[in-house]
Amino acid sequence: MGDMFRSEQMALCQLFIQPEAAYASIAELGESGCVQFRDLNDEVSAFQRKYVTEVRRCDDMERRLRYVESEMKKDEVKLPTLRPEEEPSAPNPREAVDLDAQLEKTDNELREMSANGASLQANFRHMQELKSVLENTEGFFSDQEVINLDSNRKLDPEDPAQAQGAAQRGQLAFVAGVIKLERFFSFERMLWRISRGNIFLRRSDIDGLVDDEETGRPVLKTVFVAFFQGEQLKQRVKKVCTGYHASVYPCPSSHAERMDMIKDVNVRLEDLKLVLSQSADHRSRVLNSASKHLPRWSIMVRKMKAIYHILNFFNPDVTGKCLIGEGWVPTNDIPTVQDALARASKTSESSIPAFMNVIETNEMPPTYTRTNKFTNGFQNLVDSYGMASYREVNPALYACITFPFLFAVMFGDLGHGLILLLFASWLIIKEKQLASIKEEIFNIFFGGRYIIFLMGIFSIYTGFIYNDVFSKSMNIFGSAWHMNYTRETIEDSTLKSITLRPNDTVYKTYPFGMDPIWQLADNKIIFLNTFKMKLSIIVGVVHMIFGVTMSVVNFAYYKKYASIFLEFLPQVLFLLLLFGYMVFMMFFKWVTYNDTVEGPLSPACAPSILILFINMILQGSQDTPEPCKEFMFEGQKSIQQVFVIIAIICIPWMLLGKPLYIMFKRRMSGAPPPKPQSGGGEGHGDDEAMGEIFIHQAIHTIEYVLSTVSHTASYLRLWALSLAHAQLSEVLWNMVFSMGFNYDNYIGGILIYVFFGAWALLTVGILVLIEGLSAFLHTLRLHWVEFMSKFYEGAGYAFEPFAFKTILDATEDE
Predict the structure, then answer these.
(1) In terms of domains, do 492 and 541 share one?
(2) Are 36 and 366 in contact (CB under 8 A)?
(3) pTM for the whole thing?
(4) Which end of the chain is least crowded, N or C, by CB within 10 Å?
(5) Rounded to whole angstroms, how far apart are CA atoms 317 and 296?
(6) Separation of alpha carbons 249 and 267, rounded Å
(7) Do 340 and 381 lie in a common domain?
(8) How many structural domains are present in the chain?
(9) CA 589/CA 586 separation, integer angstroms
């Protein structure tokens, strides 16, 4: 946990690598994932860099891999899943050449098979449609001796009988084909229009679905024959068929010729089926063979492309015999980087080993916080607000405890906390099996499993404090109250209620949490309201004081000792003398006023803390009846006046202290006043104009003074959500589950199961999920706004090292 107090210390390193060892060196660094490289060729376009040819070759290999993978998806070929230990390393240049050749061979073979397969499928569909035309038009040509319908047969000019018959009847022509059923009716109307009703159209639907040659989807098709007279009309009909994507096929009108043609088509169909079957088997063998290597090929190509991409960041020296690169490295990982460079030099048999130098720089390094699976969730919550500045105090370390605690204050129920604990425990126990699930919503819960686990534990704790289990109380230690009324008094029907005074009826202190007798009290809501309201203010003020105190750690580390006296001291005094004093009055009131004494210290004379605080700020007063007193102790009014005066003095102290100190420091150093600059930044830089410094400090002072009031009031959400959660839980119990207890016979036993199911569903859905999400978001806001704004700047940028694991995980998510 010590690593989480601040981000890792970073060093800007310069790498000197021989060109022959550059590829192996970057491959080793990619496996270690310790270096964030800087681009030393910003002014050079991507097409003019040294390794652009290699990057293009990797792009071409990725394109081939995508094509092979898409073909596998078409044929539903499953890819094997590689375990992390089976992932291949980056290929060396010789292996890359062999991989490129293998991918090219597989790609060309699949493309050739796809083209041939598409051609064979098209021929097979055409043969099937031709067969359907020949078979379905059998009834259209019933009497060839009476009417000549064969448009392909020539009349014998020497036969006077045929010539005379043709002259008398006129020769009819026809066109036969196949069209989609959905287009046929529009097709029929178009033929009628172009022929002015001089076309006779017949159709016969094809049984079953036929694959569409345009989309490949199964559709309904129909066979049609159009009879007409004249060559000119024939050309029009064919143009309409082309426009409607209707396939036209030759169809003799002679029965004998049709039968011979059907036999020929059947023979060709059988041959095509055999060829298609053999082609599919060969394609399946090729895809299954490629599927065994495709995951390894994909990883190797991605790693190789990433290496050349990083090598384009390097800058060759003047002689061209060395590559120079720069990158940020955590100081704890410098030995790891040196070992990786040594291994790469040995592997590539380089004559000169690669080496690394640490460069001194004034540039702000990236922020890197080392986490594990437990702390990663809390760190992500903090990083969502803003990446910490370099070596800034990390709030995630304290959020590991304060976040689930504040959540539990709002979600305090032992039963609901147990549900969260069981769910998180299941996620933790099964985390190895569940880590492979890529569903987005589930991954949100899975990533925060340890947060949910702690929220469940703390909710169980606060549930014991509130003595609340699904809106019911537990009498573990026995109530500390006893009844001092007689039976006749209790059974008196004229009494609506009886009062238990602590002085007469309390004989001990309940050891832990809330006394269960409050579950039966009429003033339960009033009592819990005051208790939880004061508790939320106390927790909030302590939380904010802790946040302000953490700013001292930042000031001391960055050696801004003047800020401790000019910023921290007035801020903490302002907070303590006003709201810290209000918390003191709460505890003093609890200790001083009780039911065992009479007079000014009796409960009836206890003053309102809120009224006292308002009168303290406004310097007002209130009338109190005898024997009560306005103040709780002697000299309280004078102390309050002193506190208010000091708090008011803290405002100009915060407003003018730091700007005047900077002005005095510049005059003592004799430096010329800086010129005003456009734009601004965080904090007060040495080159910032004094006018901007005064403006920034005024903004920060106004923000702090106003936010001290608003943030204290904001912690009242702890009370409000806790009360709402308890009341909603009680409503669900009384209006749903308890209805099953109203029946004494066997029906009541059945209804208990029914009502229990409804109650359990509503409890999990509303009180655990919805209320839990609401409490989570409110807790997140209390940390981001009320706590972290007191000391956390969040103006850094993340450390993003070159790591193959990150690259491969990002590709899988896409």
Answers:
(1) yes
(2) yes
(3) 0.80
(4) C
(5) 35
(6) 18
(7) no
(8) 3
(9) 5
725-783: pLDDT as tens digits? 999 999 999 888 888 787 777 787 788 888 899 999 999 999 999 999 999 999 999 99
- Would you state the structure tokens that stand for residue 538, as one six-digit string? 């106390």
User: What's the domain range around 564?
Assistant: 374-673+689-790
Please name which of 378, 423, 411 lies closest in space to residue 1, comparing C-alpha atoms.
Answer: 378
- Exposed, middle or buried: residue 676 (CB in 10 Å: 0-12, 13-18, 19+)? exposed
The two tokens of residue 682 are 């965080």
What span, in angstroms and rounded, lies between the C-alpha atoms of 352 and 18?
Answer: 7
CATH assignment of the domain containing 130: 3.30.70
Compute the CA torsion angle 444, 447, 450, 456 (nearest 10 deg). Answer: 10
Is 767:729 a contact under the CB 8 Å cutoff? yes
Residues 7 and 139 in one domain: no
Structure tokens at 187: 């097709």
**In the numeric block, which tokens belong to residue 713?**
């009031």
CA distance 791 to 697: 15
Q: Tell me the pairing of strands 221-228 and 173-180.
A: antiparallel
* Identity of the residue numbered 156: D
Shared domain check, 561 and 426: yes
Which residue is associated with the tokens 């097709």? 187
Q: What is the pLDDT of residues 268-319, one digit of tens each?
A: 989 998 998 999 899 899 989 888 889 999 999 999 999 999 999 999 887 7
What's the rounded mean pLDDT across residues 92-116? 90
> Mean pLDDT, to the nearest integer, of 786-790?
93
**Are the CB atoms for 710 and 523 separated by under 8 Å?**
no
Helices and strands, number each (H, E), in the chain: 28, 11
